[in-house]
């Protein structure tokens, strides 16, 4: 992993006496391209007057970055079929790159044949997808507990033509999105009670006297979900029981266990006392409860393994400008106290409150505001359950959704095919944490919420056919080049005589285009979740330092790097033959991270009798008549 000695001493030499200062910064996940003005932020939540500092950022300024497994210290672009949520796309690592100062997730029409499993015949067969898109995850790389996340993004496609499903979101590190095997019985639990009713459906529960894999006894764990943005485009027009029309933004918290009896009816508003109380919306009537998504039932056999997830969700009216310009999407997440009470999550778009959930609102199910280490995700999905005609129009088979095939035209939203190619352009991602706040923690496996040993012990759940391990180690250099420019220019890397990039200490990736990133602390000995985190370098001094040495801030981090530990990944038995396949089923676990029914064009006539559930990993409408 280390660069040739001559190369690194050259850099350290350049910096001379400054190196010692870098010892004290904790800016190790901070992109040096982040401007000084953004090294701190003011919380927008009224009740919060703490000082915040930047702990992670990616400004995507360096053009030409790619995110295939092992290419980037912050992100992994997955390269596999998406089995969740009736996905119509294949995720390819070719569909995410940086250009013109943005992360560019492109969604295109392209055929992909992949190996699928038929649950009835128990045979593998070649299945085909007609859309290719991208998903980046910081899973098991960068995670945090508590803080402020801010994305700036321009949404993909046409605001009035449905079918695309761009998302900026967060998930607990115990589940890996689209790897369905990792999410069942884990997603989206945020529950630390011993309850005979849920002890079977919650894999890591508070009844267990022994939880194995380094997990604490009598401690309920899971992978809750916070959706910062999910955008629904489509034809404008009134929707039932809300004043919001398309296009809109959904913001949600998804937790289990959910309410089981007298649940709100999809498309209607909840009856008084039948849903979570005291939810906060925009004071200017710009946001509203989302009546199109209350969660899903994950049905398993025997019945004691079935469980309910709840989605507490609000919608905000979007405008055409959200699809043509950058807008700012933010969440402020305050974890609960050690006893699981309190905390909040608040969503803001362009600085205005859209939605707020307090720990007290969750009392009715005794679930908690998340305290799990969570990672970041950015993707554009395409799903027949998101913005597509529902229910299936009369006389339509709704079996195909392919552009240009006349048989499929009745099943797809009008103008859908004009959306391709689409680009979801993300200008930056920034994460802040309150200074000296012991509840705000960095790391994917903090001591009080460890995940590392569990993931190592269940590695197969987090990987798919063709993967040797869940994540490849991140390379530094080795990409082919013909000039230094190909390796990011002289201060990032050089092109060797053999035509391969050699990176400086401060860059990473095959072409040295990514900024190195790491935790300042020894990740094998992480601080207790509710104890003092680490000594902070005052942000005022950080500003001075960054002014002084500008672009060399990153270089200085080299001194810290000596002590740092890259995340470690387990090496599972090498071969691929014994990997279990994921089935073609959908909707299970993380799969169900969104509305199983989209915002329907019309509410199904019989919807009172319809529940959406997962059977053998397949999302189905179950008629209870
Ligand atoms: C994003 O990628 C698409 C397809 O390559 C391209 O047309 C578009 O201009 C890119 N956007 C930016 C801002 O570079
Ligand atoms: C604004 O909010 C109030 C109170 O919730 C509600 O009665 C009213 O109908 C809303 N206005 C619109 C235009 O929806
Ligand atoms: C953080 O804690 C340190 C050590 O206790 C203290 O010196 C410093 O003033 C605190 N900073 C803030 C912003 O509260």
TrEMBL record:
InterPro entries the record matches: Beta-glucanase-like, ConA-like_dom_sf, Skn1/Kre6/Sbg1
Single annotated GO MF: glucosidase activity
Domain GH16 intervals: 25-437
Top-rank lineage group of the source organism: Eukaryota
Keywords carried by this UniProt record: Cell wall biogenesis/degradation, Glycoprotein, Membrane, Signal, Signal-anchor, Transmembrane, Transmembrane helix
Entry's localization field: Membrane
Transmembrane segments: 541-560
Gene Ontology CC entries for this record: endoplasmic reticulum membrane; plasma membrane
Signal sequence residues: 1-27
Protein's GO biological process: (1->6)-beta-D-glucan biosynthetic process; cell wall organization
Major subcellular site: membrane
Membrane-protein topology: Single-pass type II membrane protein
Family the entry assigns: Belongs to the SKN1/KRE6 family.
Protein's recorded name: GH16 domain-containing protein
Organism: Phaeodactylum tricornutum (strain CCAP 1055/1)
Organism taxonomic ancestry: Eukaryota, Sar, Stramenopiles, Ochrophyta, Bacillariophyta
